[in-house]
Amino acid sequence: MIMYSIILIISYMQNNMTKKDLKSFEAHNADYETKVGIESFRDTIKQYNIEEKFECSQFSKAISKIKDVNVHIDVGSGGGWLLFKTSPLFKKVYGIEPSKIACDNVSILIKEKGVSNIELINSDMIEGLEKINLQEPAFFTTAIVLSHIKNFYVKKFLKKLNGVPNGSAIYFCERYDRNIQQKLWYVRRKYWWAKNLNEWQLEFFGFEDNGYRGGIFALKVGKGGITNNFKPNIKEDVLWFFDGLKNKSLRLSRFCHRIIKKCLKKS
Ligand SMILES: C[S@@+](CC[C@H](N)C(=O)[O-])C[C@H]1O[C@@H](n2cnc3c(N)ncnc32)[C@H](O)[C@@H]1O
User: Fold this and answer.
1) In the predicted model, what is the mean pLDDT of residues 121-141?
2) Does 167 share its domain with 237?
3) C-alpha to C-alpha distance for 240 and 161, rounded to whole angstroms
4) Are residues 27 and 145 in the same domain?
5) Whose CA is nearest to atom 10 of ligand 1?
6) For the segment 137-178, what is each residue's pLDDT rounded down to a tens digit?
7) Whole-structure pTM over 0.85, yes or no?
8) Same domain for 213 and 92
9) Is the CB of 144 under 6 A from ligand 1?
């Protein structure tokens, strides 16, 4: 009986250690496969240049705040637009992306553009970080990647990030301001980030009326260097709760609307 319990506990722990959330990867990979190949990747990069996505997503602001960092690592690099933007600004740029088809297409674009300092790592975010074996401070980014991944897996990723050298920086262009309750959307508030990035001095870039997208910026200063904690107060708790409730109800009403429409069509 004891032996059986020990085996159960060990297998549960092993399972937990290797457990991943790959739903977002699967959905995006299917999307990349159905797109009409490399041309759509080219178009997206052109479109983002026109929209000035680099500036509007505040990547340029984040970079202006960091010093003496030569390596940029974009996690969930997808179609690679951000890699091409930062390749003139850093000595080495890595794109970590689990979709092989996305990596293959971006590799073609890298060759076409004759860029020599971008390296793609066809891996999940955690294995990708392990493969880089970083020995110096780096700048880590995501652009709408972590919002699609469940908390337990993002926590694992942040735990890995906590091990990188001091002087590193992150900018996650992800929402933190709305309690969105939708399929494949996981938005965490400021305190959640502060708790899980407890060696990082955090700053939240706001979402502006002029279309600027915000995100989570942080510098790795070590545990002793943090001067803020973003602990929520009651007012914030209540607002967050009702914001979630509002979004949940909207989702529920959309779902009911679809069901009613389907039933009416059948009858
Ligand atoms: C919404 S797309 C964003 C792509 C890109 N960052 C951009 O701005 O266009 C999300 C990307 O995250 C990738 N992704 C999903 N799960 C991942 C994981 N576990 N590790 C790394 N990347 C992941 C997807 O394959 C997809 O390319």
Assistant:
1) 96
2) no
3) 27
4) yes
5) 145
6) 999 999 999 999 999 999 999 999 999 999 999 999 999 999
7) yes
8) yes
9) yes
| Ligand 1 mutation target, pool 145, 150, 175, 186, most atoms within 8 A of CB | 145
CB 72 within 8 A of CB 107: no
Cα–Cα distance between 133 and 172 in angstroms, integer?
Answer: 21
Question: Which structural domain range is residue 245 located in?
Answer: 232-267
pLDDT the model gives residue 18: 79
End-to-end CA distance of the chain: 57
CA of 100 to the centre of ligand 1 (A): 12
Of the ranges 16-25, 38-47, 249-258, the best mean pLDDT one: 38-47
CA of 194 to the centre of ligand 1 (A): 23
Residues 87 and 202 occupy one common structural domain:
yes
Q: Answer yes or no: is the C-beta of 71 below 6 A from any ligand 1 atom.
A: no
Residue 178 shares a structural domain with residue 202: yes
DSSP state, residue 147: G
Find the 171 Cα to ligand 1 centroid distance in Å: 15
Structure tokens at 209: 């009326």
